[in-house]
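ok trying again, last paste got cut off:
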Amino acid sequence: MELSVSYSAHVQTYGDRPAVKDGATAGTSGKSKRLESIKISLSDTSNGSIEYRSHVQRGGWESTWAKDGKMSGTSNQSRRLEGMQVRLTGDLLVKTHDVFYRVHSQTFGWLGWASNGEPAGTSGQSKRLEAFEVMVLPKGQVPKGYDASAPAFVGAVTANASVQTYGWLGAKSVFTLGTTGESKRLEAIRVTIPSQPYAGGIEYQSHVQRAGWETSWKADGAMSGTTGKSRRLEAVRMRLTGELANHLSVWYRVHSQTYGWGGWTRDGESAGTSGLSRRVEAIEVRILPKTAAAPGSTKNAMRTK
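nice, full thing came through this time. structure:
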């Protein structure tokens, strides 16, 4: 069964753009124009449909999926799309075909290919989608240049850090919490996940000066570490929970006294130092697809005496 997929976008300034199909680009690049809504349809829906939803500025992931040419996103609200998901429905169609899609995102440019309901784009970073491409292919085929290790989605966390001298810095959607170049110890953290495409949350655990690893994991904004005791964090662990953990990984690395940035690790592994009396000064965090490569070197993520 041969299938064609057509799709169109409503673009800032330009309005509704003509539909394109089968891997062609909908939207713009190099013009800094946001996508505000999308429509996707199949040439033949006798064996199933195509469904899609968007991550919308100030609204997060839509609670319902649009299908077969209906609008996903907003109209006349000047709100950017930040992410999207696309999936096929119908037992026969799902068994015989896959849907692949990728997005051009502000700052990142073209991200990797997502497929079959996986998220594409960003969350927690206020980055607009500028263009996207969709292909429906028979099982066993992939788009030209497909690389499962290239991230299709990049998520941030919402975090707050208590830092020596400064106290709590304030909750923000960030990649990096803490300070660098100021020789200030990180004393406590609070971490949550902003709007995500799956149910679940985040847990984290700190290695605290003179106390070692906390006996329990903290979750979804609870404080890990101490305040008012002048105790440094020396290492951390993070992991996702619920359905979120089945699809995405949390990658993180630590900026430690003396050593600077260590290597990246993920999903509950330790990052920082132990037995070396070195303060954590900052933590960098990324939420990426399970298949994505590490954001950088994984060497020396954890140093021990």
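cool. The chain has two domains: 5-147, 156-304. Residues 37 and 152 are 19 Å apart (CA to CA).
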